[in-house]
Every structure is written in structure tokens, then in C-alpha cells.
Design a protein that fits this description.
By secondary structure, the protein is α/β, with parallel strands linked by helices. The chain contains 13 helices and 15 strands. Helix 7 runs parallel beside helix 8.
Length: 405
């Protein structure tokens, strides 16, 4: 950590040469004139968000999503393809690219889908989209056919692109909507078993060993997933993975009968949560992504069983991690920088440049979704007292967020 006046520049062992340019520091000095101490981080990077446009702009837009990302300290995000139209051809992807160019205040890198309409039956036009897609994913749906995933990996390898997999075995879901654990049994809910996640990860690891493509696993939530990925890394498999803040600090013992606790994968057991923390500490889990998934208030108002899957997370991710994992001594600030910025950028080839985000870590606040810039308001952290307030985010030399200080 370097100190410059009232600013503490947080570096990382994996990126010790991160510094703020004189121009950026000049901007900070002119805009943050009080005597409070601030922490400067490299701009965060989230490789798993849903901005819902085109097709579902009543949930979120590129404009609102990028604004809320900037408020959360993010200067780069990768957007998932469950849109309408699905980006399974260049023509469809181009619709999203045009909106991004027009409306985004940060750097947005879209995924293209693995299969046509994310239906799992036919490969998307991966050749045509390769130049403009950050990778290929059918996020929201696991690719059920082993042969289809093998073909996708072969094609992705030939294009030098990554397969980014939502791993879920449909036949094991059995109508479940929360973790198949103690809470589900006690409250007569249908559960989602852990095997629905880790069995497909194990299948895909076998394919990556065979084919040798770059492979990344989305939002892992189970102890078995951590163990399988840890072993694959020991064997030299080209695999990385992410988890989300809510899986690290909540478990199914925290569930309430409220749609803001419903996401996919679900909050798992306390044992799973501890395995995820251990995976963070030993490097098995490479990065933290939010899976920011906004829905309308009506879609999230129907309880655990009938609400839509998904919560928002871009505006609370760092405060949650800082309050519950850094202030408690589980992670260091430097480790959080690796997880939120350095590792995702390295793996996905996303440049950092002069992007920075500036934080006041002393101020405590109460999470109030009505203050979110996201159109989505569903968060399991409603009413929680957290530390860490983003006061400024600079992307590509432009101030894209500034709080009143």
C-alpha cells in the first residue's frame, strides 16, 4: 500500500506496479477537497452481470446498469447473453453493441451465446461473433448435451476464446428453488441439490482435459465444486472460476420468506460457505463476480417459491466484502483487489489503464435499495449496516460517478 497525502493507493502482489497517473491524482485533488482519508483502488471488473438490454429494459438497461456499476466502483463488466434477441449471431450481437456504444458510461464486454437461442441444440455462429464477444456462455442454462459442449469447446479453442459455463443438470432440479437443506425441509420448500451444479462441472473438466480449451465456471456455490476445481488445477487444467459475495457471507440459515433471498444457484449450507472461503484463501476460486441480476419489483414480490431468480449486487459488492470479510480479518484489502480487479482482468484480457475508484472506508451506511441507481432493488442486504462508500469512479479518464462529499 502506497500513501500519497490523504490517499492510500491499494496495490496487489499480483499487480504491484499499479499507480495513479498524475492526471488522475490531479482530478482527485480538485474534487475531493476535504481532509478525510481516501483509499484508491484500480477500477473493479465484474465478469458476470445482466444488463437486460435488448429485450428486458423494464428490468435494467445498459444505461442504468453501467451507472450502478460505476457507483459500485466498477469500470469494466461482462454482460450475459440471456437477452431478446439472444446474441447467437452477429446481427443479434450488433444490437447490443450499438446500445453499449451509445449508453454505457463504463467498459462493457458482451458474451455471445454458446448455442442458438441458448436452447442447447445447435451451436451459435461463434465464428462471426468471435471478434466482438469476450467469450461464449449460455448463462442461465447449462449445456445439457456432452457432445454439444465438446463441439463448443473445440470451436472456442480454434477461435482462442473462452467457454464460460453456467453448470446445472436440468434433470436433477426437480422443481427446486432453494438449497436442498435444513431450511427447505423445515419450511416445506422444494430443494435444489448440490449435485445439479458439481456434476456438470466434473463433466466439463473431463472435456477440458480432452480438448484443452480455456474454461471458466460461473458462480460456484458448493463444497464439491470447490474440491473438483481445486483438483483440476493441480492436474494443470486450464480452468478458472468465480463465486459471488452473497455465497461467501450468507447461507441457507439466513433465508427469509422473501424473493430477495432467491437466486440461482441458491444460498447453500454453512459448510458450503466455509468451503468457498477456503477456496478463496488457497486460490482455487480466482475472482468474485456479482451475478447482478435485476428484476422488476413485481417479479421479486412472490416469495421464495414464485419470485424470479436473481438479486442485484454491483452497488453492495465491495461494502459487503469489506465489512464482513476484511474488517473481520478473513481477507486483506490487497486480496480483495485481486479478486475484484486483477484476476478477472488477467484471465479475460481486459485492460486496466488509468481506471480507478476512490472509497471512504470509515463511513457506515444502511443499505437502502431506493438509493440504488440500478432499476433492480432486490437485495438480501436490505437494512444491513455496512462500511465503505464509493465517492468517485474514473473510467477512461472520465469521472463516471461522484458522490456528494
Amino acid at each position: 500500500m502506497a500513501t500519497l497525502g490523504k490517499y492510500k493507493i491499494i496495490q496487489s502482489q499480483n499487480h504491484p506496479d499499479f499507480v495513479c497517473s498524475k492526471g488522475v491524482l490531479s482530478s482527485l485533488g480538485g474534487l475531493l477537497s476535504n481532509e478525510k482519508e481516501y483509499f484508491i483502488f484500480p477500477g473493479f471488473c465484474d465478469v458476470h452481470v445482466h444488463f437486460r438490454e435488448p429485450g428486458f429494459s423494464y428490468k435494467e438497461t445498459v444505461k442504468s446498469g453501467s451507472a450502478c456499476a460505476a457507483r459500485g466502483g466498477y469500470t469494466a463488466v461482462c454482460t450475459m447473453p440471456n437477452l431478446n434477441p439472444v446474441p447467437d449471431s452477429y446481427e443479434n450481437l450488433k444490437q447490443q453493441l450499438d446500445i453499449i456504444e451509445k449508453d454505457s458510461v463504463i467498459n462493457v464486454y458482451p458474451y455471445a451465446s454458446i448455442t442458438v437461442n441458448q436452447a442447447g441444440n445447435q451451436l451459435a455462429d461463434m465464428d462471426a461473433m468471435s471478434k466482438d464477444a469476450i467469450g461464449f456462455s449460455d448463462d442461465g442454462r447449462g449445456v445439457q448435451s456432452e457432445e454439444m459442449m465438446r463441439a463448443a469447446m473445440i470451436k472456442a479453442k480454434s477461435l482462442g476464446k473462452m467457454i464460460v459455463a453456467h453448470c446445472e443438470v436440468n434433470e436433477l432440479l426437480k422443481g427446486g428453488y432453494i438449497h436442498d437443506g435444513e431450511y427447505a425441509k423445515a419450511h416445506n420448500h422444494r430443494g435444489i441439490c448440490s449435485a445439479s451444479e458439481y456434476e456438470q462441472i466434473i463433466r466439463d473438466i473431463k472435456l477440458v482435459k480432452e480438448i484443452g480449451c480455456k474454461y471458466h465456471v460461473c458462480h460456484i456455490s458448493t463444497k464439491e465444486s470447490v474440491a473438483a476445481i481445486r483438483q483440476a488445477k493441480k492436474e494443470g487444467v486450464d480452468i478458472t472460476c468465480e463465486t459471488a459475495p452473497h455465497y461467501l457471507v450468507l447461507d441457507d440459515g439466513d433465508l427469509q420468506e422473501d424473493g430477495r433471498f432467491k437466486m440461482n444457484p441458491p444460498l447453500r449450507s454453512a459448510e458450503d460457505r466455509q468451503a468457498l472461503i477456503e477456496g478463496i484463501l488457497d486460490g482455487t476460486i480466482d475472482m468474485i463476480a456479482t451475478d447482478h441480476a435485476p428484476h422488476s419489483a413485481e417479479e421479486k414480490s412472490k416469495g421464495l417459491e414464485k419470485s424470479a431468480f436473481g438479486i442485484v449486487g454491483l452497488e453492495t459488492a465491495f461494502p459487503v466484502l469489506y465489512t464482513k470479510l476484511v474488517k473481520t480479518g478473513i481477507l486483506t484489502l490487497e486480496k480483495v483487489v485481486e479478486l475484484l480487479c486483477i484476476n478477472p482482468r488477467k484471465r479475460f484480457g481486459i485492460p486496466l489503464g488509468d481506471d480507478v475508484t476512490v472509497w471512504d472506508l470509515e463511513t457506515e451506511f444502511t443499505v437502502d435499495p431506493e438509493e440504488f441507481l440500478s432499476q433492480g432493488k432486490a437485495t438480501p442486504f436490505l437494512g444491513e449496516n455496512l462500511f465503505g462508500r464509493c465517492v468517485m469512479t474514473i473510467c477512461n479518464g472520465n469521472t463516471v460517478y461522484k458522490a456528494d462529499v
